[in-house]
Amino acid sequence: MSILCSICRLVKKKVQPPVSFILNDVQGYNMKAAIFFGSKSDSDTMKKAADVLKEFGVDYKAYILSAHRAGELLKKTVAQVEKEGCEVIIAGAGLSAALPGVIASETVLPVIGVPLECINPGKSNGLGGMDALLSIVQMPSQIPVATVGIGNAKNAAYLAVQILAIKYPELQKKLADFRKKLADDAAANGGMGVEL
Fold it and tell me: Please, what CATH class does the domain formed by 29-179 belong to?
């Protein structure tokens, strides 16, 4: 039976379907997170964020857009992901790392910045990502960007899941189960004492 038929039956019975049912199933607004990064060369690092979101069943979209080279397109894309129901944004950037801050200036959604080390054909710029870390963590007052460790896209996704879990009880349960498994694994791997 189609979703539309289900809604029609609810309307006939004068039962209001939950908003999430309407948004997720009828209009196609499934995305809860967006991942932005400025260079294709950062794909492997940022894929780690996507993997965590997939693990928790969080729908996302990913974009490669430079804050400097494609400012107008970035602005339009941020507005579009908001319209599509995005609730948290992960943004990875290296060097001056403007991308997370520019995105934060265009939205009231929480933005999590991932500082990235700039490596051009196998060679670092010598700063090891510290330039990006300091750029992202030092956002001016009133336009905050949460910041994780250098290259730690996985932690950005875990933080995104925590933010979303405030609103979605099923995600909160998955996160609690995940944390319990971490604790159980630690106990099983010597956390209860070892013989040396």
Answer: alpha beta
